[in-house]
C-alpha cells in the first residue's frame, strides 16, 4: 500500500512537470499535496480529502519543491498545554517584576548593612518592650497568687470549708498567669521569626550590593518556630500528661526549695539562699486552635542586696537551660 502511494506521488509529480513543460499558465499550475494520516501513512494527491484537512500538509509545486507547510490543527490537549504555558509565562513575568520592585525597595530602605541590622534589633527590642510589660504584670499576679495560698494555708482545721470567693480568686489568678506566659512564649517565637526574616533580607541585600542576582534557592526558609532550651513541645493528651508529670518531678527535685504552689497546669517553686531569691515556674500552655502543648520553665531572680533581677546562680541557670534535654532523655 505504502509503495503504491509513493508511486502515485511520483506519477503525479511527473504529470505536473509535464504539464508545466507543455506551457501551462503559471496561474493555473497544478499543486500536489503531501500529508500523513493517523496511521502514519504518507499520501500524495492533487486535493486533500475533507477528513484529512486537520492533519496538516505540505504543498509541492510542479517541480516537486515545497512551497507551503500547514501544521496540523491543534487538538484540545494542544490548546490546554498552550494555555498553561501562557499562564506560566505570565506568572513568571509577574514574579520577576515583583522581585525587581522588592529589590529596589530593599536598596532604597537601607543605605547600608548597618542600617538593616539596626532595623532588626529595633523590631526585636519592640517585642522585648511588650514582653517586659507582660512580665511586670506577671510578677504582680504571682505575688497575688502567693497571698491567696497563704490565706488558704492559714485556715485552721476547725474552720469551715474554703470560701467560694477565695477558691474562685485562686482559679482566676492561675488562669491569668497561664495567659501571661502564653503571651511571653508567643512573643519569643515572634522574635525568632523577625530574626529569620532579616537573615533573608541581609543575604539578598549583600548580593544586590555586590551587583549579583540573589539566588532564592540559597535563601533559608523563614523560621516560624524555634524552641528554646526551656520549652518542651508535645502532642496528644497521653503524651503531654506524661511529659507534664516528668516536668513537675524535675522541678520538685531541685535543691533549696522553700515554698511550692501547685495549681492547674501550673507549678511554682521558690528558692532562697544568701545571695538571691529565685522563682521557678512551670506552666502548661496550649492555644485553643493549636494541637501542640508547650511546657515552659521560667526562672526569675532578685538579688537580696542589690535588688538586681539578673540571675547568677549557676545551678538554677543549668536547671532552666537543661530542662528540655532532661525531659527528652527520659523518653
From TrEMBL:
The keyword Coiled coil applies. Pfam families: DUF4124. Residues 1-23 form the signal peptide. Residues 73-100 form a coiled coil. It comes from the Bacteria. Residues 32-74 form the DUF4124 domain. The keyword Acetylation does not apply. Keywords: Coiled coil, Signal. This is DUF4124 domain-containing protein. It comes from Chromatium okenii.
